[in-house]
Design goal:
Elements lengths: L7 H14 L4 H4 L3 H11 L4 H14 L3 H5 L3 H8 L6 H16 L8 H5 L6 H11 L9 H11 L8 H14 L5 H14 L19 H4 L16 E12 L2 E6 L10 E2 L2 E3 L4 H10 L4 E13 L3 E12 L9 E4 L1 H6 L8 H4 L7
Parallel strand pairs: 1-6
Antiparallel strand pairs: 1-2, 1-4, 2-3, 2-7, 5-6
Helix pairs in contact: 1-12, 3-4, 3-9, 9-12, 10-12
Length: about 350
C-alpha cells in the first residue's frame, strides 16, 4: 500500500533513468509557461506523437498569450482541427483572456492562481507550476497513478478524489529540491513509455523493476483499480455528402452541445435508405441527380458512439443556397472551415470523394 512504501528510495533511480531516456519533445526544449500550458492541454486524451505537429503549428500561428486571446474563433478551431475535445481550445482562449485582463498578460506562477484559469485543473496547474516555474507542486495524471499503484500494490480506487489528493500530498513531500519539474516529468515519462496501460508493461527496462510490488507478485495487470465506466450511448446517423459540381454542402453546428460551433456535413438521425436520403436532400432545397452509398463509419466520443452510414449525393448546380447551408470547395474546407475528425471517413476518403 502507498502508506507503507518507502518512496524516497525510488527518487534517485527514477531521475537517473529519466536523464538517459527522456524523449526529445518540442515543448521540453524550451519549457516556457505558455508552451508547457499549450502542450499539457493538447496532451489531455491525445497521444504524444499525435500532438507534436499540432503543437508546432499552433505555436507558429499563435506564439503567445496575447495572440491566443484575440484569435477569431473559426481560425482557432481550425488550428485545433483533428485534436478533438474542442472545449479544450475554447477554454484555452478564455484563460488567455483572463491572463490578459487579470495578470497583465503574464502567466501566474502560483498554483492557486493557476487553478482559477478556465480549463486548468489540479494536474495542469501542477505541471505548469513545476515544469515552467520550478515550484514544488505535484502533477498527478493517469500515468502517475498507474505507476505508483503498481509500485506500491495499492488497490484503492483511483477514481476517488481523496486518493488523488493523498497522492499529490505525498509527492509534494518527497520531491527533490530544485528538480520538481524533472521529477514530475520523469513519473509521466515512466508511465507513458515503460509502465504502460493495457498490454504488458516493460518491467525488464524499468528503473523500479526490482522494487515494484506488483511486478514481484506478477500482478501488474491488476493495477490501477478504478470504477468501471458506464457504457457509451450509441447514436445512429446518416451522413449526406451533397456535391454541387466541385463544391460540397456543409453547415455550422449549434453553439452549444457536442462539437459546438464546428462545421459538419448535413446528417439525419437513424439509418436512411437511398430513397429516404434522396427525399431528405430534396427537402433541404436541392435537386438530386445521382446517389452513391459510402462505407459505414464509427466515431467514439467519451460518452457516446456515432455509428454512421453515408451517401454521396450529386445535385444540380445552383447559386440559391438554402438558409444555414454553405457551399465550399475542398480548399476552403481545408483552410477556413473546421470540420471535426468525427467526419474523417467521409472527408478524406481514398479516391477523393471529397
Amino acid at each position: 500500500m502507498l502508506d507503507d512504501f518507502e518512496l524516497n528510495s525510488c527518487i534517485g533511480p527514477l531521475l537517473t533513468w529519466f536523464k538517459g531516456h527522456a524523449r526529445v519533445l518540442p515543448w521540453r526544449s524550451d519549457p516556457t509557461p505558455y508552451k508547457v500550458w499549450i502542450s499539457e492541454i493538447m496532451l489531455q486524451q491525445t497521444r504524444v506523437e499525435a500532438v507534436k505537429p499540432y503543437f508546432e503549428r499552433f505555436i507558429r500561428a499563435l506564439p503567445d498569450i496575447p495572440s491566443l486571446s484575440v484569435c477569431p474563433e473559426d481560425r482557432l478551431l481550425k488550428l485545433w482541427e483533428g485534436l478533438g475535445y474542442y472545449n479544450r481550445v475554447r477554454n484555452l482562449q478564455e484563460a488567455a483572456r483572463q491572463i490578459m485582463e487579470g495578470y497583465s498578460g503574464e502567466m501566474p506562477s502560483d498554483l492557486d492562481e493557476l487553478k482559477k484559469l478556465k480549463g486548468i485543473g489540479s494536474y495542469t496547474a501542477g505541471a505548469i507550476a513545476s515544469i515552467a516555474f520550478g515550484q514544488r507542486a505535484a502533477a498527478v495524471d493517469g500515468n502517475v497513478l498507474r505507476v505508483l499503484t503498481r509500485l506500491t500494490q495499492d488497490d484503492t480506487d483511483i477514481m476517488k478524489p481523496a486518493f488523488r489528493q493523498k497522492m499529490e500530498d505525498i509527492l509534494v513531500e518527497i520531491m527533490p529540491d530544485g528538480k520538481c519539474g524533472e521529477f514530475n516529468q520523469a513519473l509521466m515519462e515512466l508511465g507513458a513509455t515503460v509502465c504502460v496501460p493495457n498490454g504488458d508493461p516493460q518491467c525488464a527496462v524499468c528503473p523500479w523493476g526490482g522494487i515494484c510490488l506488483a511486478h514481484k507478485n506478477g500482478r501488474e495487470g491488476d493495477y490501477p483499480v478504478k470504477t468501471r465506466k458506464k457504457p457509451r450511448r450509441v447514436e445512429e446517423k446518416t451522413i449526406l455528402l451533397i456535391r454541387d459540381g466541385e463544391r460540397i454542402v456543409i453547415r455550422k453546428r449549434p453553439e452549444k452541445g457536442l462539437l459546438a460551433g464546428l462545421y459538419e456535413f448535413p446528417s439525419e438521425k437513424g439509418f436512411l435508405t437511398e430513397d429516404e436520403a434522396v427525399k431528405a436532400v430534396e427537402e433541404m432545397g436541392y435537386s438530386p441527380m445521382r446517389i452513391q452509398p459510402l462505407p459505414d463509419a464509427k466515431h467514439i466520443f467519451t460518452h457516446v458512439e456515432w455509428h454512421m452510414k453515408g451517401f454521396l449525393v450529386r445535385v444540380a448546380e445552383t447559386e440559391d443556397v438554402p438558409k444555414g447551408m454553405i457551399l465550399a470547395t475542398r480548399e476552403e474546407t481545408e483552410r477556413k472551415y473546421p470540420i471535426p475528425s468525427a467526419y474523417a471517413a467521409y472527408k478524406k476518403r481514398k479516391g477523393g470523394t471529397f
